[in-house]
């Protein structure tokens, strides 16, 4: 018997989840087992998530993407969130995080787990105030852990918990003022709780208690980056590195209990700092899978942050990040709507695939080559079929019909692909009507 995927892997056992992931990744199952045993790949798969189609996150695996959704006090339409869920699954997102932070969210979370083939993540800290119906200051340690256990029982595959925001890290923030302070919602709530109660972070102080819950349900622990930079000015500062060192120590403690771990990372960061940050995380956190938000490479593009994030995400993943959290055009402005979610997914999938080309992930280049062949053949139906968003590609093509069949309205009869194909076949071309 085994308690977690890591426990099975260390025992030399191959689980059904490992078999499915190995097939998806075109990887020998024994290679995957060894990577899971070493903590370099995680398979988030809560024992209670029976509808899950498992995925591997980490070394030699496709770059995965996560979609954030969930209600807030100002926008709490659960039907709209379910529409987002269905869209995310149809668009092949591998993970969905329910970040609901208002009201009694348990019913929605359980419905999400029941319907989703994608892995499900949560941040229990967001849910604590609503679930417990108490002010933040008055929540007890036992109540915090009760919320975590409820999420685990509900079938959540991975949880973001900011265990590295301890008193030492908090002191570092105070001594080294930042332009944007702490922008992590969960991290800021824990910081506030610690300050108001003059106590240590309960998830750091009682970390073994957290590991007990994770091991019981095989919840992958996503060690949250409370000190991720919220602007390019704050990137790679003392607080961020202080927390990262702590997360590396907590990773080894989790592995000793056979709990799977991912590390969360920045944030906002200028282009030339990204590669170094990826190497630093892998070194300090012992090659644990790295899960990044962006990074957003500039702070001046509200309304277009899916683009600033995709730029950073492509660089980050090509330099070692394993899991990209999407960012939508609504970032920093509002709760995203259904169309924002789609735009964020597409931008992040493009970034992930661009990185997979660099990583040499099996069949990534073949997809690009197939598109190139369709283009040289001037085969528009095949081009549209191969597009990352076939619906949008078809709509664009249909919206402006060319006079010359087999071309588009950009070049018409001057289409280089069409003309080269004919000339090389020994045919003449005519450009005049």
Task: Give your account of this protein's structure.
This protein has 433 residues and is of the alpha/beta class. The chain folds into two domains: 318 residues, TIM Barrel (Alpha-Beta Barrel); 61 residues, no CATH class. It is built from 19 helices and ten strands. The strands form two sheets. An eight-stranded parallel β-barrel has the order 3-4-5-6-7-8-9-10, surrounded by seven helices. A two-stranded antiparallel ribbon has the order 1-2. Helix 4 links the parallel strand 3 and strand 4. Helix 13 crosses helix 14, helix 14 runs parallel beside helix 15 and helix 17 runs antiparallel to helix 18. The protein is globular and about 80 Å long.
Radius of gyration from the alpha-carbon trace, in angstroms: 23 Å
User: What is the total domain count?
Assistant: 2
> How is the biggest beta sheet arranged?
8 strands, parallel, barrel
CATH level-4 homologous superfamily of the largest domain: Radical SAM ThiC family, central domain
Structural class: alpha/beta
Give the number of helices.
19
Largest sheet: spatial strand order = 3-4-5-6-7-8-9-10
User: What is the CATH architecture descriptor of the largest domain?
Assistant: Alpha-Beta Barrel
Question: What's the topology here?
Answer:
Layout: H1 5-10, H2 16-25, H3 29-38, E1 41-42, E2 57-58, E3 64-69, H4 78-90, E4 95-98, H5 106-115, E5 119-122, H6 124-132, H7 141-153, E6 158-161, H8 167-175, H9 185-197, H10 202-205, H11 207-217, E7 220-223, H12 238-256, E8 261-265, H13 271-284, E9 290-293, H14 305-318, E10 323-325, H15 338-359, H16 364-376, H17 380-386, H18 390-399, H19 416-424
Helix pairs in contact: 4-15, 6-7, 7-11, 8-12, 13-14, 14-15, 16-17, 17-18
